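Hi there,

I know you've been waiting on this one. I reran it after we fixed the sequence typo, so this is the corrected version. Both the input and the resulting structure follow.
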Amino acid sequence: MSTTRIFATSLRSLRTNPILASSHHVISRGHRIINSPRSCAVLSSATLRPFSTTRIQRHGHITPPKPGEELYVTFIDKEDKEHRIAVSAGDNLLDIAQANDLEMEGACGGSCACSTCHVIVLDEEHYDKMPEPEDDENDMLDLAFGLTETSRLGCQVVMTKELDGLRVKLPSMTRNLQASDFTQK
């Protein structure tokens, strides 16, 4: 019997028989209904497992900079308009751009699986202060439109004090290759 069916059956039993609602009861084959003031659930002794939680991370979430701790990054968009933005250490360029409504797609959600957050670092001095790109990033950069010697993926560039004053240009186009682009129609 499926868990959903057991749960539905148990709820019907509770509604029709208030005596059942007062304690734990075995339903069938080790399933039991747990009723407390806070919850009512059907559990299987075979499926009970401990769980843990981790800090929630939201896509596009950036931390507002504290007064006096601002770092600045300047994005130059496709129309050559400059956008100077105060950011916090630890924020990446993709999240910063999206939070400020700049045209940076980030199709993969920042998982380094596309090249739609491609940026061109304008100052070699800042580029040299960045950690070397990982192999995954280099593989994705090979697919980027308008690749240069100072190209990086915005999702992989994390702001630090050393990068304060960073200037990046958004390329005139991006490539978003998908598996569906290669299927026969």
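Quick highlight: Helices lie at 3-16, 93-99, 124-129, 135-141.

Best,
R. S.
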